Amino acid sequence: MSYLIRVLLPDAPGSLGRLAEAIGTVGGNIKSVDVVESLPDGTVMDDMVISLPTNTMADVLISAAHMVEGVVVDSIRPFSGTVDRRGQIKMLVDVAGASSNSDKIAQLIDNIPQVLTSSWAILLEDGSPVRRITASYGAPEDDGSTPSLINITAAQILNPAEDTWIPESWALLDSSLAAAPLGNSGLVLIIGRVGGPEYLPSEVEHIGYLGTILSRMLQH
């Protein structure tokens, strides 16, 4: 079983090595590591995908991480795949190589949850009413709601308590939500992480950049 664990650790030589050693003592195998954000207090937030032997509980990872001085576990959840950002380049190549806009959109929605360490993606067309274009595997079912003009003009975190147009099913199981417009196309990308962790500001900014790039590709 593999898990995505988000940890805060000192931005100092040897910190990651000591954490890796502690994870190894409980049988954990680190499959990938991604630095999500460097913080001004001298710490970094890392996402790590770690596989554990069969029948080993995820709790042992938390205990092992907390054995290392200065390490704090932010969240942990089951996860398949890796957090290798090079996957984003492959996604862009696949989108660029598609023969039509509909194929490009299909490539985008199929691949973007994995490259953004998310659980699902939905593509909406903003308007009156808002129209659901397509969705990835694992996305919440269309509940038939038709909000009017959701007005997503920049990449942002979505808050179901404030953004009343959000379907209730999107926020189930403590899901974190973010959205980004695809340029001026009228299309809006929604991504969700079931069980978290929350999208950090650096991740939201990154999603916005991807939205801009993808909007240009869809124009050709």
Please, could you describe this protein's structure?
This is ACT domain protein. The structure is a single chain. The chain has 220 residues and is α+β, with helices and mostly antiparallel strands. The chain folds into two domains: 2-78, Alpha-Beta Plaits, CATH 3.30.70.260; 86-218, 2-Layer Sandwich (Beta-Lactamase). The protein is built from five helices and nine strands. It has helices at residues 15-25, 59-66, 86-97, 101-115, 201-218, and strands spanning 2-10, 29-38, 43-51, 72-78, 120-125, 131-135, 156-158, 176-181, 187-193. The strands form two sheets. A five-stranded antiparallel β-sheet has the order 6-5-9-8-7, with helices on one face. Strands 2-3-1-4 form a four-stranded antiparallel β-sheet, covered by helices on one side. β5 and β6 (131-135) form a beta hairpin. The longest helix has 18 residues, at 201-218. The protein is elongated, with a radius of gyration of 18 Å.
